[in-house]
Design brief:
190 residues, mainly alpha, 69% helix
């Protein structure tokens, strides 16, 4: 192993679809809470923080991956858990107000799943494709449920990939040991 591979490339989280989707969920949750949840409610803070945690833990795990696959796995799972918590908040919002939750295969839910990042010309205004600044609370909550489910699906796939990579390649400590052992052998030590 050479010095270049001791600490592998890391931190490419901005290119992950899971990160991009979680970021849309976070920004959209802020919009939703500002429009529909009292700013004096603890629920508003909890929802925004759960959405933020989803984004931040993906980023932190990706950056930590260079020296700790364990940390990357853990933080990616924390991101998923935070988004699952947020999902329950949206489901509660609908149930407590007697509003309808879309079924997974409803035309509305299918439409939301079909919107792709490439369709968005300006990612700085990620809420526009979903009209969250103008739509009713029932529609906005359902859109966010779809997006959270999408983010969680992507994170499950990401966790499966990370697990496979860890099993095949090992972690940083194993790489350190291999490099150090190879160096000792080159220097004539055993």
């Amino acid at each position: 192993m050479n010095k270049k591979t001791l600490i592998p490339q890391h931190g490419g989280y901005r290119n992950l679809h899971s990160f991009k989707t979680a970021q849309i969920v976070y920004d959209s949750t802020v919009i939703f809470c500002n429009r529909f949840v009292s700013r004096f409610s603890r629920t508003q803070d909890q929802m925004v923080q759960a959405a933020r945690s989803g984004v931040q833990n993906i980023a932190e795990g990706s950056v930590a991956s260079a020296t700790s696959k364990k940390t990357e796995l853990k933080l990616t799972n924390v991101a998923k858990a935070s988004l699952e918590e947020l999902l329950l908040d949206y489901e509660d919002y609908l149930r407590q107000r007697g509003l309808k939750q879309w079924k997974t295969e409803s035309p509305q839910a299918v439409f939301i799943r079909q919107i792709r990042f490439s369709d968005m010309s300006d990612l700085s205004d990620t809420s526009e494709p979903y009209c969250l600044t103008t739509t009713r609370d029932e529609v906005a909550a359902n859109v966010l449920i779809c997006l959270i489910n999408q983010a969680c699906f992507l994170l499950r796939k990401q966790l499966q990939k990370l697990e496979r990579e860890f099993l095949e390649e090992g972690g940083f400590t194993e790489r350190l040991y291999k490099v150090r052992s190879a160096q000792k052998q080159r220097n004539g030590f055993r």
